[in-house]
Amino acid sequence: MTIGISDLAFATAHQVLDLQQLADVQGIDVGKFYIGIGQSQMSVPTADEDIVTMGAEAAAQILARHGSDGIRTLLFATESGIDQSKSAGVFVHGLLGMGEHCRVVELKQACYSATAALQFALGIVARDASEKVLVIASDVARYALDSSGEPTQGAAAVAFLVTADPALIEIEPVTGLHTDDIHDFWRPNYLSTALVDGKYSLAAYLGALEGAWNEYQSRGGFAFAEMARFCYHQPFTKMAVKAHDRLCKIVGADLDKDQRLAQISASLELNRRTGNSYTASIYVGLLSLLEHDDADLAGERIGFFSYGSGSVSEFFTGVVRPGYRELLRTARDAAVLDNRRPVDYPRYRALHESVDAVQGADFETAAETTGPYRFAGVVDHVRRYEKLG
Ligand code: CAA
């Protein structure tokens, strides 16, 4: 039996800040952002958008195509949770009117947890091939204003359906794992922004790649040359370039810079415009690869490296299924990015500061989003969501 992803959908916040604005305020050359870290824009949530509204918008596309019958598990991966107890997935389950015979749970381990969700979903389907698992990964990446991490903020969500005989990509069984108890990036409960040891986090990511790759090989994984494309966790797109260069060095691949880039460049297109989306980022990368690679990838093997600070990481592979292009929503996803409302720097800064200002109190949000779901505010400590239109 083959198991994998049958459909993959994307959502992002409905405002955008061009990083030129940030460079102007900081008085630096925008080349540091556009080229140095490989980011051109960041998605900025309106006051009435969050991980639930983005997750619901992504998942609604899956349900519109497949229905919710037979989905008995919903796994919600995030590291920007909105409640310490209730899963963000239950809010989405309610918003989308899914059936009551469903287990819903939230998973956390920094940016890695969507891959944990994928692996758990594969296990559920392996036990009973009639099961379908809906995985949602949704995050708002927030760093302190004026910090080095600020240009790498962003927001996006993906939803994907894990089934037997998958239509989009088969996920193969051999994986390589790596865990290390470190503090490269983390967010204490009392902070709304992440703490990060920037340079150390880059080294930790690359060290984890080597560790996960080595275990993948020791467990009988495919050779580097048997993989046509690679898809990495992308805190910023240049990180994927650095990671692929490192992997090529580890395996001694005889590829020049252009050949190395050709194996990953299509996977960078969407992330370059959304910014970091933590858990969603690697799967935004997969969608970007499928939508933007000119080559026919049917039958080709993709190598994946999923990294979550702290740190847990995994190397695994998947094989793209014939007919995958018919399942993509390429024009819709491009339009969603193009149609985001531009915000100027003062508005972006005010929105960033307002997140901490409303902590702990009841409040209503201004109706700003142009998306299909909105976060209306908090009443008696309960978060309220609405479906629009
Ligand atoms: N034109 C072109 N390039 C320029 C330039 C210009 N005018 N000015 C600078 N650059 C280049 C630099 O040479 C550098 O390139 P290299 O890394 O290839 O040398 C790049 O731009 C960045 O410059 P700096 O290293 O000086 O930037 P910085 O110190 O201000 O911050 C950062 C970089 C540490 C990545 C920071 O953005 C950060 O802290 N980001 C958040 C942490 C992060 O994303 N870590 C990734 C690993 S952890 C992870 O993956 C989990 C997660 O999601 C967070």
From TrEMBL:
Q: Which SUPFAM superfamilies match?
A: Thiolase-like
Q: Where is the Hydroxymethylglutaryl-coenzyme A synthase C-terminal domain?
A: 174-247, 255-323
| EC assignment | 2.3.3.10
Q: Where is the active site?
A: E79, C111, H233
One GO BP annotation of this record: acetyl-CoA metabolic process
Q: Name one GO molecular function term.
A: hydroxymethylglutaryl-CoA synthase activity
CDD domains membership: init_cond_enzymes
What residues does (3S)-3-hydroxy-3-methylglutaryl-CoA bind to?
A: D29, Y143, K242, N276
The alphabetical list of record keywords is: Acyltransferase, Transferase
**Residue ranges occupied by any Hydroxymethylglutaryl-coenzyme A synthase N-terminal domain in the UniProt entry:** 3-164
Q: Does the keyword Acyltransferase apply?
A: yes
Q: Which family does it belong to?
A: Belongs to the thiolase-like superfamily. HMG-CoA synthase family.
Q: Which PANTHER family match?
A: 3-HYDROXY-3-METHYLGLUTARYL COENZYME A SYNTHASE (PTHR43323), HYDROXYMETHYLGLUTARYL-COA SYNTHASE (PTHR43323:SF2)
Q: State what protein this is by name.
A: Hydroxymethylglutaryl-CoA synthase
